[in-house]
Every structure is written in structure tokens, then in C-alpha cells.
């Protein structure tokens, strides 16, 4: 098939390149020529293997710098590889092709721009530039952006290119698809005319260049005797096809190559199917390339064995895997701690308490602690708990909850209800969602308001023509919304605002809008949690109006929040807006500050921490409800959990809650089936262990409704019929007063407000509340089912 270079006789253990390698790593580095697959487990030193392999090939004369092509997935990884090679050997690394798929394709197209049909100075569009180009095209051709949202069109085009499809290759099954194909064709013509390419075009044009030019393809096949591919499990269909063009030609179903392809990856960490990654490429590579050499890197240098045993046991339930088991010589370490909370609020508070313990008694640093979650919307409750506890934190790879664009839009509408003179909020949403009010109209309004010495809101009547009509319609929307929400509680105000302003409807048209909608629903949860924790009560009127139509302060006996600076009693709406502003700006860690890290599991890949918390481990959340019934998607969820577990070095904490506010509703939760797949010997249950997922599901059939007997095993009362496991259910009332031992005159302690004295008690069950006077915060009504009051002896 191709010449086989023999292994050197007994590689010297004293070789500076090889001295620090374990036997598996040494075997991978010193492989003979030929196609090979390296299954590199988490924390097994794959970057060291890749760079040492290249250095070994060069040092031993098996390759020249110009004959090596190394592909990575991030610029950071490529730079790290180049830096390590420069430190290992006195070689000129510029001769090597080391970079990302897109970077190498750019290099190829620059060198052969004429053959690729591109100008020498072609420009590259990033994702924002591409979206702007699509928007410009839609406007030019009068495309209905309500029916064909630009973001959706950009995603359609990118998806076609990932599959190697030009417009005439796409099947138009219906009128909508045919219209998208037409726009795709217009977009291609526009890009060609302007001499620009997007990221998808870099790959597709490069692939077509090699596919359609025999002499060019043969040249690069001869040149690149050694092709090394990192993170092979994350390659998509087009990237794999591109690699095959460079690797050789198909003869009798096998690839005949002039050199060697070394693929390094971990099929157990393939978690990007939603981006087009295809885990099956690894098995296809083994079959199509006739791979004879497979080496497993199973020695883990990151975690203790209790953590690794949990990861191994979990992932063994996936059937579609090549198979490996991580091991370590570091010993068992601490067991994996498992906690069952009564609610998501209790779960977040438990996390904070454990984090404080790690910081205070175990010598952990803030930056070495991570909280991972399956959904971005989960971060809000955790952020609030950390904020209240004064623990600095940073949302990795994203924005804190109250800083997210969709949340800031919603808060701006709420601020206009509270104060229509707020020019900042007015400017933010006057044309969001789009309502035909452009930059020029805003300039005219600003000039009119400045001349009259009034707010933008009050200056609208001075703007003439169509601009004035559109601006007037916006003012009417806000005025109408204020009238509609008169006398409503905070939750109802937000729900009405989201409907009237069409914020949710707007994001429904975006391909990536699901997360934004989820966050807007979480804003409702945040508001309801706030009014209960602060003692207003769920049904408190949030925006009372006086007889003149303006906002008025709440009247007794309704509890309020006192502004520490003015002494003014704030309405629930005003208090919530103040709370949101403080959380958005007060406790956010600055760049480089020592802070607890918050992130989604997807964002955590490639990172590691001393302590890791994985929250929300419930059916319908992790694994996600969209994946629970399909084998392939469930296996991806399990790989995602595997990635989460293997981020932990020293301590791992898993938690789930009996009830959770999600998507604007309170619902019961069955704990994740993943708990059943973890080894008991590695776990420490901090709360009594409940029935397994399998046992609970069997009460009414797997995947069917969460039965009353299953609910009762959690101590819940019956809540009536449900339509499915993940049905949104009301929280049932609890009979009888809780045994809290409180009475008027008793001294109590609150974690946020400090010591206080109980003045009065009212209500019963989950609605029971206490009026407590705190020395520093005054009198507050606190819901006892939420507030943590401790009797002071």
C-alpha cells in the first residue's frame, strides 16, 4: 500500500524528546509510516504527543518541515503547537503548514487564487460580516425578513456549504426551500462580484480546488508526507472530505496515499453535532484508510480515580464508541459528592456553601472552581446566590444573565413603564424589535427634544412626517402597556410586556433564538423569586398608579423596600429593576481577577479545574428532553456528561433538585438517569438516596408520565393528571404550618440582612410569612418557605 518505515531500534529513554513519555505516548510518537488513529482520553497529554511526534519525525530525518501538515481546531492550539516545536528543536517552523482548517484553506487559496477563481486580494467575511451581507442582499431584493430571517438564511447557506452543496445541488422540497436556494444563489453571485468569501466558502472552495485539479492535488499529496489531525472527533463532513483529497486516491475502496495520516481524537468527547461535527468520521477513517495502528492514551494526568471511575462507568453505556478506559496513579481521592435539593434556589445556596468551604478550609482558589450547567438559563439562580454571598464570579465565554442583550431589551421596556423619561432605555428599544425607525429618525427626535429641553419620550410629538408617525406608534405601545399592566403583579407585567412588545415572537424567527427565549422566560422566574425573597409576596401589585396616571409608591399594609439613600419605599417593579442593575454591575469579576467560573458544559471542553459543580442533573434538563428518546442524541448527551466529569481534578459535585423554575413554570423533576450509570463505590450521597430513574419511570412505563407513586417517593402530594414526564406542574400546597418555631418577639438571623426581631406572622403553609425588623435594613416581610431564618439563642 505504501512503504513502511521501521521503528528505530529501542528508542533511548535518555532521548531529550522521549524521556518524559509514558509507554503509550512513546508508541504513538515513534509509530512507523502509515495511517494511524490515536484515541486520546481526557487529560492524557495528546498535545504533547502531537508536537513530540512532529519533532521526532524531523530529528530522525523521517520528514522535512515542508512535508508536514498539522491541522488543529483553534488558533490557540496551533500557536501552542508552534511554540512547543520551536522550544524542542532548532528548526524554522514557518516551512510547516500548521493551523486551523480555515487558516490552511486560506493559505491554499491565496497560493492558487487564479485556479480557485478568486482575486488575489480576496477578503474574508466573519460571521457578523456575513450576516450584514445577507441583510443587505435581502433589502436589495425586497426579501420578506419576517418570513426569511437573515440569521436563518445565513445558517441555511453555511449548512449547505458544510455538506459540500452549491445552490444547484440543493433539493427544493417546498416553496420556502426554493426561495432560500434562490437567495443562496444571489448571495454567491454577490460574494463573487465583491471578491469576498465566508468561512464556509474557504473550506468548500479549497475542497473543490483539490477535487477538480488533478495536477494540483497530486502535487500536495506528494508534498505532505505526514498529515496530523487534532480533535478528529470534531471534524464535519466537508472537513473529512478535504482531508481525503490530500491523503490520496481511492483504489478498491481503500485510500492509496503517498504518506501517512495520523488522526488524534476522542470519540467519547464528540459533543458538537449541532455544529455539524460527525463522530462517525473516526470509524469511517479506520475503515476507509485501512488503519492498522490504533493506540489508546488512557493514562490520565488530571484527575483522581473516583472521578475517572465515574467517567468510565458512565460512558460505557454508549454503544457507538471505539472504547477505552481512563486510569491514574494519583489514588482514589475524595468521593464524588451527590446532593438532592428541594428547589433550584436551595441547590444554588448549597453550591455557595460548598464553595465557601473549599475556599476557607481546603485551600482552593476562586479561579480553580467551576460551576457547569446544561442550559444558559440555569446560571441566573446561581449568579444571584453568588452575588448575595459576595463571592466574585465570572461567566466564561458569555455574558452574565442581566447583561445578555435580550434581557437588557426586556428590562428597558420595564424601565419605560416605571419611568418614561429614561432616554437610555427609550433609545435601546425604540426600534427593537424593528419597527421602521432608523438612525435618521432618531437624530431628528434628539434634535427636537434638545430644542424643547425635554426627554425623547416627550419630544416625539414634535417630529413631523412618517418618522413622527412611527415614533408615535412606539409611544402609544408603551402607554398602552402601562394601562394594561395597572394593578398587576410583577410576573404578570413581564408576561404582558413580552407579549405586547413581541420580543419572544421576534426571537422565534432566529435560528439561534431558542436560548434567548429561554432566557426571557427565566426573567419571569427571576422576578418571582425576587418578590418572594424580598418579602413582597407573589401577588403584590408591582406598578400601582395614582389618580393622575403616574407611578405611585406602594401603600400599607403592602411591604416595600426602602432605598438606603432616599428613604423612599420602592414598588416591586422599581426594586426589581434596581436589583437587576446592581447584579449586572457590582460583583462581576474583572479580567484576570480571581473568581469562580460559571459556564455551560459545552464551553468547558478543553478546560480543567480543581473543583467542579455540575448542577441541574434532572431528566429533561440533563439529559435534555429533546435527546431523551433518541439513541444517537442520548449518547451525545452522555458524552457531554463525560466531558463535564473529566473537567474535575480534585473534587466533583453533582446535584439535582425536586422542583425547578424553568421556562417560566415550576415543575417536578426526576433525577437524571445518569446517576444510575455511576459506580456506587465512587459516590458519597449527602442527602438520602432516592429511587432510581429506572424505578420511577417503571411506575407508568419508560418515557411516560411521572406517576403519583413516583412523586410520592419524593414526598410530594398528588397534583392531578399530567401529560408527560416533563409536564409543567404547579407546586402543590403544603398542609399545615412548617415547624419553624417562630413567634413575635423572637430574635432571628438572615444570611443577607443579619440579625432581626420577628414582629408578626401571617398566612399558612407555603404562603406563610413573617415581618422582621432588621437593624440595618428596617422591617421586611419574608416568605418563610424561601427565606432562611435561624432562631438566635
From TrEMBL:
<keyword id="KW-0238">DNA-binding</keyword>
<dbReference type="GO" id="GO:0016887">
    <property type="term" value="F:ATP hydrolysis activity"/>
</dbReference>
<dbReference type="Pfam" id="PF13361">
    <property type="entry name" value="UvrD_C"/>
</dbReference>
<keyword id="KW-0547">Nucleotide-binding</keyword>
<feature type="domain" description="UvrD-like helicase ATP-binding">
    <location>
        <begin position="19"/>
        <end position="304"/>
    </location>
</feature>
<dbReference type="InterPro" id="IPR014016">
    <property type="entry name" value="UvrD-like_ATP-bd"/>
</dbReference>
<comment type="similarity">
    <text>Belongs to the helicase family. UvrD subfamily.</text>
</comment>
<dbReference type="InterPro" id="IPR014017">
    <property type="entry name" value="DNA_helicase_UvrD-like_C"/>
</dbReference>
<dbReference type="GO" id="GO:0003677">
    <property type="term" value="F:DNA binding"/>
</dbReference>
<keyword id="KW-0347">Helicase</keyword>
<dbReference type="Pfam" id="PF00580">
    <property type="entry name" value="UvrD-helicase"/>
</dbReference>
<dbReference type="GO" id="GO:0000725">
    <property type="term" value="P:recombinational repair"/>
</dbReference>
<dbReference type="InterPro" id="IPR027417">
    <property type="entry name" value="P-loop_NTPase"/>
</dbReference>
<keyword id="KW-0067">ATP-binding</keyword>
<dbReference type="Pfam" id="PF21196">
    <property type="entry name" value="PcrA_UvrD_tudor"/>
</dbReference>
<protein>
    <recommendedName>
        <fullName>DNA 3'-5' helicase</fullName>
        <ecNumber>5.6.2.4</ecNumber>
    </recommendedName>
</protein>
<dbReference type="GO" id="GO:0005829">
    <property type="term" value="C:cytosol"/>
</dbReference>
<feature type="binding site">
    <location>
        <begin position="40"/>
        <end position="47"/>
    </location>
    <ligand>
        <name>ATP</name>
    </ligand>
</feature>
<keyword id="KW-0378">Hydrolase</keyword>
<feature type="domain" description="UvrD-like helicase C-terminal">
    <location>
        <begin position="305"/>
        <end position="606"/>
    </location>
</feature>
<dbReference type="GO" id="GO:0005524">
    <property type="term" value="F:ATP binding"/>
</dbReference>
<dbReference type="InterPro" id="IPR000212">
    <property type="entry name" value="DNA_helicase_UvrD/REP"/>
</dbReference>
<dbReference type="GO" id="GO:0033202">
    <property type="term" value="C:DNA helicase complex"/>
</dbReference>
<dbReference type="InterPro" id="IPR013986">
    <property type="entry name" value="DExx_box_DNA_helicase_dom_sf"/>
</dbReference>
<dbReference type="GO" id="GO:0043138">
    <property type="term" value="F:3'-5' DNA helicase activity"/>
</dbReference>
<keyword id="KW-0413">Isomerase</keyword>
Amino acid at each position: 500500500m505504501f512503504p513502511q518505515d521501521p521503528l528505530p531500534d529501542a528508542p533511548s529513554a535518555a532521548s531529550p524528546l522521549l524521556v518524559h513519555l509514558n509507554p503509550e505516548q512513546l508508541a504513538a510518537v515513534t509509530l512507523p509510516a502509515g495511517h494511524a488513529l490515536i484515541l486520546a482520553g481526557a487529560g492524557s497529554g495528546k498535545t504533547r504527543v502531537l508536537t513530540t511526534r512532529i519533532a521526532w519525525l524531523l530529528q530522525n530525518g523521517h520528514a522535512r518541515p515542508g512535508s508536514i501538515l498539522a491541522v488543529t481546531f483553534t488558533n490557540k492550539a496551533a500557536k501552542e503547537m508552534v511554540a512547543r516545536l520551536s522550544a524542542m528543536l532548532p528548526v524554522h517552523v514557518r516551512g510547516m503548514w500548521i493551523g486551523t482548517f480555515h487558516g490552511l484553506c486560506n493559505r491554499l487559496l491565496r497560493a492558487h487564487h487564479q485556479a480557485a477563481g478568486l482575486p488575489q486580494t480576496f477578503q474574508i467575511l466573519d460571521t457578523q460580516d456575513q450576516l450584514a451581507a445577507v441583510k443587505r442582499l435581502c433589502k436589495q431584493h425586497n426579501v420578506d425578513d419576517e418570513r426569511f430571517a437573515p440569521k436563518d438564511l445565513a445558517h441555511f447557506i453555511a449548512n449547505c456549504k458544510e455538506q459540500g452543496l452549491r445552490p444547484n445541488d440543493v433539493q427544493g422540497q417546498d416553496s420556502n426551500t426554493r426561495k432560500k436556494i434562490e437567495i443562496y444563489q444571489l448571495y454567491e453571485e454577490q460574494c463573487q462580484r465583491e471578491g469576498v468569501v465566508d468561512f464556509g466558502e474557504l473550506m468548500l472552495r479549497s475542497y473543490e480546488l483539490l477535487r477538480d485539479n488533478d495536477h494540483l492535488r497530486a502535487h500536495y499529496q506528494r508534498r505532505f508526507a505526514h498529515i496530523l489531525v487534532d480533535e478528529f472527533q470534531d471534524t464535519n463532513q466537508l472537513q473529512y472530505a478535504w482531508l481525503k483529497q490530500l491523503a490520496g486516491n481511492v483504489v478498491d475502496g481503500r485510500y492509496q496515499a503517498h504518506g501517512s495520516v495520523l488522526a488524534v481524537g476522542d470519540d467519547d468527547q464528540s459533543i458538537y453535532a449541532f455544529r455539524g461535527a460527525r463522530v462517525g468520521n473516526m470509524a469511517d477513517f479506520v475503515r476507509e484508510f485501512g488503519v492498522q495502528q490504533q493506540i489508546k492514551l488512557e493514562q490520565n494526568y488530571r484527575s483522581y480515580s473516583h472521578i475517572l471511575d465515574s467517567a468510565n462507568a458512565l460512558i460505557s453505556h454508549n454503544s457507538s464508541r471505539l472504547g477505552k478506559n481512563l486510569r491514574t496513579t494519583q489514588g482514589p481521592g475524595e468521593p464524588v459528592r451527590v446532593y438532592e435539593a428541594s428547589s433550584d434556589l436551595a441547590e444554588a445556596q448549597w453550591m455557595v456553601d460548598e464553595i465557601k468551604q473549599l475556599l476557607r478550609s481546603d485551600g482552593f482558589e476562586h479561579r480553580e472552581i467551576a460551576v457547569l450547567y446544561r442550559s444558559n438559563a440555569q446560571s441566573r439562580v446561581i449568579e444571584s446566590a453568588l452575588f448575595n454571598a459576595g463571592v466574585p464570579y465570572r461567566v466564561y465565554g458569555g455574558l452574565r444573565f442581566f447583561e445578555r442583550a435580550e434581557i437588557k431589551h426586556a428590562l428597558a421596556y420595564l424601565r419605560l413603564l416605571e419611568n418614561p423619561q429614561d432616554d437610555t432605555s427609550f433609545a435601546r428599544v425604540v426600534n427593537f424589535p424593528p419597527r421602521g425607525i432608523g438612525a435618521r429618525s432618531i437624530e431628528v427626535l434628539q434634535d427636537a427634544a434638545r430644542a424643547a429641553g425635554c426627554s425623547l419620550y416627550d419630544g416625539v410629538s414634535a417630529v413631523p412626517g412618517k418618522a413622527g408617525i412611527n415614533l408615535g406608534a412606539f409611544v402609544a405601545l408603551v402607554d398602552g402597556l402601562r394601562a394594561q399592566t395597572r394593578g398587576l403583579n410583577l410576573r404578570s407585567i413581564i408576561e404582558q410586556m413580552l407579549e405586547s412588545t413581541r420580543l419572544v415572537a421576534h426571537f422565534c424567527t432566529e435560528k439561534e433564538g431558542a436560548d434567548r427565549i429561554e432566557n426571557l422566560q427565566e426573567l419571569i422566574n427571576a422576578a418571582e423569586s425576587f418578590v418572594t425573597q424580598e418579602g413582597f409576596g407573589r401577588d403584590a401589585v408591582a406598578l400601582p398608579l395614582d389618580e393622575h396616571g403616574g407611578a405611585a409608591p406602594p401603600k400599607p399594609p403592602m411591604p416595600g423596600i426602602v432605598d438606603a439613600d432616599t428613604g423612599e419605599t420602592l414598588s416591586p417593579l422599581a426594586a426589581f429593576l434596581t436589583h437587576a442593575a446592581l447584579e449586572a454591575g457590582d460583583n462581576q469579576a474583572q479580567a484576570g481577577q480571581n473568581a469562580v467560573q460559571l459556564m455551560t458544559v459545552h464551553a468547558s471542553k478543553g478546560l480543567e479545574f480543581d473543583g467542579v459543580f455540575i448542577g441541574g442533573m434532572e431528566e429533561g434538563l440533563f439529559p435534555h428532553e429533546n435527546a431523551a428518546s433518541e439513541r444517537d442524541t442520548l449518547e451525545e448527551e452522555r458524552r457531554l456528561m463525560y466531558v463535564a466529569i473529566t473537567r474535575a481534578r480534585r473534587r466533583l459535585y453533582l446535584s439535582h433538585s425536586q422542583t425547578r423554575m424553568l421556562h417560566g413554570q415550576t415543575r417536578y423533576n426526576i433525577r437524571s438517569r445518569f446517576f444510575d450509570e455511576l459506580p456506587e463505590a465512587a459516590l458519597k450521597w449527602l442527602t438520602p438516596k432516592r429511587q432510581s430513574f429506572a424505578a420511577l419511570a417503571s411506575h407508568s412505563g419508560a418515557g411516560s408520565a411521572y406517576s403519583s407513586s413516583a412523586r410520592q417517593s419524593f414526598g410530594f402530594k398528588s397534583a392531578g393528571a399530567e401529560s408527560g414526564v416533563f409536564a409543567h406542574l404547579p407546586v402543590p400546597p403544603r398542609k399545615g404550618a412548617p415547624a419553624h418555631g417562630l413567634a413575635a418577639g423572637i430574635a432571628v438571623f438572615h444570611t443577607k440582612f443579619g440579625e432581626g426581631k420577628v414582629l408578626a406572622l401571617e398566612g399558612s403553609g407555603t404562603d406563610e410569612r413573617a415581618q422582621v425588623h432588621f437593624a440595618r435594613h428596617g422591617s421586611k416581610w419574608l416568605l418563610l418557605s424561601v427565606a432562611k431564618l435561624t432562631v438566635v439563642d
